[in-house]
Each structure stands twice: as structure tokens, then as C-alpha cells.
Write a structure and sequence with these properties.
The protein has 429 residues and is an alpha+beta fold. The chain contains ten helices and eight strands. Helices cover 66% and strands 10% of the residues.
Length: 429
């Protein structure tokens, strides 16, 4: 009886202990708020939008005029460098210079087409940002749920390990006094080592998830995280609140990866227009003045120049643009098919998990926890044998972990539906 009181007291103390001072308690909403504020990957991706907007500014700019100026470097008659002298009697002694200005004019609406292309680029960068946001938010929320349910499983191990350690210490003392057989000590010791090994593997798994989670919300690696979540969907038919047709419509409307595929079609169409316009030659107008270098002094002229499109009419660029259009249409169709399949498969998975979890008795975990306390009590009072005690402990641990895992899978399946539909229908805490 004394052994039982020691074990129960130790377990209760373990359960009542508060987290260490540097533990960061986070609800799902608080984690998302920190993620949106601090995530470096989002900040980096947002610069791509700024870059794309800068490209629109560049596309709107007109071509700069070009100024040409030349001066005679050396006059062999006067033996002067860079001479600008003037002599009516002997023009060979005069200085020579020429000046000209030219302006390039784009034809075939190239400027407007490039502006339109750059604006589509802003759309692409914006959707890519929101697609990254969707993916990282899904990762964050999935990590949060994993951490929460794994920390719940952690409590089972700490409870059982604490009890076994107390029993083992007492049994060693009783074995030394000759009251019990060594096989009981060794069997308890073996069970304890098994529990500690499993617990260690669980902690490694939690740490792996925590490393990613801490990076997403940008907190120091030494910070302890305690996930706070109110799981309250046992026995509820959550999926019936949203018709399947609504899930599919939302996915087709709000999936950012589908929006990217759609805007890529627009980009390819506009790019084809740009490539066709590039086949048209641009015109350069110029005005020039030459002091003495022409057939008369003070020669002025106007000029026009343009390349003759005999050979290069941008045939390759136009062909590539047409190929990109066909390719983009196929990719868009593939993405649509992917969206429909994602919704169908994940809805079916969520439905099966909902049915599984709702088939469990809500009082099962509480009743089993009470049972295991009675098992511990009866074993310490020697009312049941070692084999029965260890079987009960194994069953309790396994069933508790299975229940936690089933709940995690159910929550994760709802989160997956949020992800594939692009809309937070479920897990709104």
C-alpha cells in the first residue's frame, strides 16, 4: 500500500508541474499571427512583387535620346590639338566639330505590349506569394497539431515511466530483503527501458517538428513550445456543414496554384503579341550639324534609319511563344484535374476518419485512465500478478496513443481539406 501511495503521489506531482519559465504557450491563432509577422520566407517572396512592380515602371519609360559630338583631335596645318579656331582666309586652319541628336521610336505598340506583359508579371509574383503563404500556413498548422497531439502522447509516457521507476526502486529494495523474486525486478526494469526508449524516439520526433515550427514563427531554437488546443469535435459530423460542391467550387476559385496556371495563360498570350511586335523594325530619327567635315561648311541634315527585316523577323521568338501557349494550356488542364482529384481524395479520407473517431466512446479515455490507476493499486497490493499488470499497462499506452493518433489524423485531414480548397473551412480555432 505504501508503494502505491508513493507512485500515485509522484505521478500527480509530475502532472501538476508547470512549464519552465522559458516555455512559450501558443494557441493556433497566436502561432499564425507570429508566422505572418515574422516569417522570413514570406518577406523574401514579397520582394519579388516589388521587383515585378519595378519592371512595370521600367516598361513605361520612353527611350532616351542620344547625343553625339565629335571634334577634330589634331590639325596638321596649325599643329594644334582639339582646335576650334576660325580663319576665313585659310579654312585648313579652322577647327572641325560635328554634333548630332537621335531618338529611337518603338513601332507596332511595343511599349504598351511590354507594359501589359510586365503587369501580368506582377500578377504572377502576387499569386506566387500567396501560394507560398498557403503552403507555409498549411505546414505551420500541420506542425502545430502534430506538436499538440505528440505532447499529449508524451504525458502517457511520463506518467507510466514515473510509476515504473517508483515500482522498480521499491522492488529493488524488496528484492534485497528477499521478499520478491529477481525475475519481477528484471521484468519491470525491461518494461521501463522499453518505455524510456519509445519516449526518447517520441521526443526526437517532437524536436524535429519543433525545429521547423520555430523557423516558421521565428523564435530562438532554445525556446520551449507548449501547444494549446481545444479538441472538441468528437461525436460531431463536421463535414456535413460544408457541401462537397462548395469545397470543389472553392478549390477552383481560390487555389492559388490554379490561379498561377491561369495567369500563365494570359502571360503567354501577351508574350506572343510582344514577340510578333518585335518582328517590326524600330525607327530612329536624327538631326546632325557638321562644321567643316561635309561638302559645304556648316552642313545640317535630318535622317531616318531602320533595319530591313529581310532575314531576322524574330521567327524563333514567335515560335517559342506559340509553343508556350500550347504548353500552358496543357499545364492548366493538368492543374484543374489535380485540383478535382485532391478534393475528392482528401474529402473521402476526412470522411473515413470522421466516422472512425465518432465511433469511439467519448468516455473511453477517461474510464481507461481510471482503470489503470486501479491496476497500479491492485498490483502494488499484490492482488494481480506481474503479467496482468504489464499487459494492462501496455494496452493502456497503446490504446491511448492510437486514440491520440486517430484524433491527429482527423484534424490533419480537415487541415488538408483547407489546403486543397484554398479556404479555411475547418479547424477555425
Amino acid at each position: 500500500m505504501l508503494l502505491f501511495m508513493v507512485c500515485v503521489t509522484t505521478i500527480n506531482k509530475g502532472q501538476a508541474q508547470n512549464p519552465v519559465p522559458d516555455t512559450l504557450k501558443l494557441t493556433l491563432k497566436e502561432a499564425e499571427d507570429q508566422f505572418l509577422k515574422n516569417n522570413l520566407a514570406l518577406i523574401i517572396q514579397h520582394y519579388n512583387i516589388d521587383n515585378a512592380q519595378a519592371q512595370v515602371i521600367t516598361a513605361k519609360l520612353f527611350q532616351n535620346p542620344q547625343l553625339d559630338y565629335s571634334i577634330g583631335a589634331y590639325n596638321p596645318v596649325t599643329k594644334k590639338l582639339f582646335s576650334l579656331g576660325y580663319n576665313d582666309a585659310d579654312i585648313t586652319r579652322n577647327g572641325e566639330f560635328a554634333v548630332g541628336i537621335s531618338q529611337l521610336f518603338l513601332t507596332a505598340g511595343k511599349r504598351n505590349k511590354n507594359i501589359a506583359l510586365a503587369k501580368v508579371g506582377v500578377e504572377q509574383a502576387t499569386y506566387q506569394f500567396f501560394d507560398l503563404l498557403r503552403t507555409l500556413r498549411f505546414t505551420l498548422r500541420s506542425d502545430f497539431f502534430n506538436i499538440y497531439f505528440q505532447q499529449q502522447s508524451e504525458k502517457v509516457y511520463t506518467q507510466e515511466i514515473g510509476a515504473l521507476q517508483q515500482i522498480l526502486a521499491a522492488f529493488k529494495e524488496q528484492y534485497g530483503n528477499g521478499y520478491i523474486a529477481q525475475k519481477e525486478v528484471l521484468r519491470i526494469q525491461s518494461q521501463l527501458y522499453t518505455m524510456q526508449t519509445e519516449y526518447n524516439l517520441l521526443q526526437l520526433s517532437i524536436n524535429s517538428t519543433l525545429a521547423e515550427f520555430k523557423t516558421l514563427i521565428k523564435v530562438p531554437g532554445t525556446t520551449r513550445i507548449a501547444a494549446i488546443y481545444n479538441y472538441n469535435i468528437d461525436g460531431k459530423e463536421v463535414l456535413t456543414a460544408v457541401p462537397y460542391a462548395n469545397l470543389l467550387d472553392s478549390a477552383n476559385t481560390n487555389r492559388t496554384d490554379l490561379k498561377i496556371a491561369r495567369v500563365n495563360l494570359t502571360y503567354n498570350d501577351v508574350n506572343l503579341k510582344v514577340q510578333k511586335a518585335a518582328a517590326w523594325p524600330d525607327i530612329t530619327l536624327s538631326a546632325n550639324f557638321d562644321k567643316y567635315g561635309s561638302y559645304i561648311p556648316n552642313f545640317s541634315n535630318l535622317g531616318i534609319s531602320l533595319p530591313l527585316p529581310f532575314f531576322n523577323r524574330n521567327q524563333g521568338g514567335i515560335k517559342q511563344a506559340r509553343i508556350a501557349i500550347d504548353q500552358g494550356k496543357a499545364q492548366y488542364q493538368q492543374q484543374q484535374n489535380q485540383v478535382e482529384n485532391d478534393v475528392a481524395v482528401n474529402y473521402d479520407n476526412a470522411l473515413k476518419l470522421e466516422q472512425l473517431c465518432n465511433s469511439f466512446d467519448p468516455k473511453f479515455k477517461q474510464d481507461y485512465s481510471h482503470l489503470i490507476q486501479e491496476v497500479l493499486k491492485n498490483y502494488t497490493l499484490r492482488n494481480i500478478g506481474l503479467l496482468d499488470f504489464l499487459n494492462y499497462y501496455d494496452d493502456y499506452k497503446n490504446n491511448t496513443l492510437l486514440l491520440d493518433n486517430a484524433r491527429l489524423n482527423r484534424v490533419a485531414s480537415l487541415e488538408q481539406l483547407n489546403y486543397v480548397t484554398g479556404t479555411p473551412f475547418f479547424n477555425k480555432q
